[in-house]
């Protein structure tokens, strides 16, 4: 096979706008991807005209115009487009013309969390944003169920093994001593984003997160977007993620 005419299967799937590259990798690992009738293995390559099926559905390998937007995700909606039985999702909040496009979330927020969410059809961008090696900082504002002990900051920065994952914060900043409840408010910075990482990190240190809002990803700050609202990003906006 001509190596120049092939690409890794997860990249072909991502470029088709079906999902992110990491989600494609998971589908391959789960045996849910077939190439020319054979179950694909992680690391396999394929020609661009190969018949590729994901979850028994063929991918459309036409050129997809890159589209990336940010949303101020409200609490109570899910970041999924793969579960037909899911409750209300972020994609239902999009304008009708965008609902018809094949978009996915690049870095999810759980149902009870809110704030800055990236929605795109650009698999390469999603990979860059979510891969730990790029160290794109995510900033979260957190409200805890009880007063925070500042002596616990070194524990959060050092990290801990919890539920099979190593979880750690890059920075923890207690809120200024202003207003009621300031002892329970924090800002937390992460370079990565394992599933429910902020919540689980605090749980491992005997705190319960009552409210979690993501306010920044890289150089993009959440502002002037109402809950459930969106903003479509241009090329310069996208470059700010990595500034």
Write up what this structure looks like.
This protein is an alpha+beta fold and 243 residues long. It has 3 domains: 3-58, Structural Genomics Hypothetical 15.5 Kd Protein In mrcA-pckA Intergenic Region, Chain A (Roll); 68-132 and 220-240, 2-Layer Sandwich (Alpha-Beta Plaits), CATH 3.30.70.580; 137-217, Alpha-L RNA-binding motif (Alpha-Beta Plaits). Helices cover 20% and strands 28% of the residues. The chain is built from 7 helices and 17 strands. The protein has helices at 9-15, 21-29, 96-99, 123-130, 153-158, 197-204, 235-240, and strands at 6-8, 33-35, 38-39, 45-47, 52-54, 57-58, 68-73, 104-105, 114-120, 138-144, 160-162, 165-167, 171-174, 185-190, 209-217, 220-221, 230-232. The strands form 4 sheets. Strands 7, 8, 9, 10, 13, 14, 15, 16 and 17 form a 9-stranded mixed beta sheet that branches. A hairpin with a 2-residue loop joins strand 15 (209-217) and strand 16 (220-221). Helix 1 packs across helix 2. The longest helix is centred in the first third of the chain and has 9 residues, at 21-29. It is globular and about 60 Å long.
Strand fraction equals 25-35%
Element-by-element helix/strand order? EHHEEEEEEHEEHEHEEEEHEEEH
* Uncertain regions spanning at least 5 consecutive residues: none
Number of strands: 17
Bin the helical content: 10-25%
What is the general shape? globular
Q: Give the domain tally.
A: 3
Q: Could you name the CATH homologous superfamily of the largest domain?
A: Pseudouridine synthase I, catalytic domain, N-terminal subdomain
The CATH class of the largest domain turns out to be Alpha Beta
Calculate the terminal CA-CA distance, rounded to whole Å. 39 Å
Alpha plus pi helix count: 7
Structural class: alpha+beta
Query: Rg, please?
Result: 20 Å
Q: If you average the pLDDT, what whole number results?
A: 89
Major sheet details: 9 strands, mixed
CATH fold field value of the largest domain: Alpha-Beta Plaits
Q: Any idea what the CATH architecture of the largest domain is?
A: 2-Layer Sandwich
């Amino acid at each position: 096979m001509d190596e120049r005419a092939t690409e890794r299967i997860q990249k072909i799937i991502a470029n088709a706008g079906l999902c992110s590259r990491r989600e494609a990798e998971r589908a391959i690992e789960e045996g849910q991807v077939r190439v020319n009738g054979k179950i694909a293995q992680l690391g396999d390559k394929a020609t661009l005209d190969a018949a590729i099926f994901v979850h028994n559905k063929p991918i459309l390998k036409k050129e997809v115009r890159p589209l990336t937007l940010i949303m101020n995700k409200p609490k109570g909606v899910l970041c999924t487009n793969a579960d037909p039985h899911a409750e209300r999702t972020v994609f239902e909040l999009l304008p009708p013309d965008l609902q018809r496009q094949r978009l996915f979330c690049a870095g999810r927020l759980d149902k009870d969390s809110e704030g800055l969410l990236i929605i795109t059809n650009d698999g390469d961008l999603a990979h860059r944003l979510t891969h730990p090696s790029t160290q794109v900082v995510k900033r979260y504002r957190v409200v805890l169920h009880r007063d925070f002990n500042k002596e616990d900051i070194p524990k959060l920065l050092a990290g801990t093994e919890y539920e099979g994952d190593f979880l750690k914060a890059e920075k923890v900043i207690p809120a200024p001593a202003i207003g009621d409840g300031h002892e329970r408010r924090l800002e937390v910075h992460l370079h990565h984003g394992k599933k429910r990482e902020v919540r689980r990190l605090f749980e491992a240190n005997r705190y319960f997160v009552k409210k979690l809002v993501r306010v920044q990803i890289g150089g993009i700050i959440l502002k002037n977007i109402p809950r459930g609202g969106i903003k479509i990003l241009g090329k310069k906006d996208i470059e700010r993620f990595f500034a």
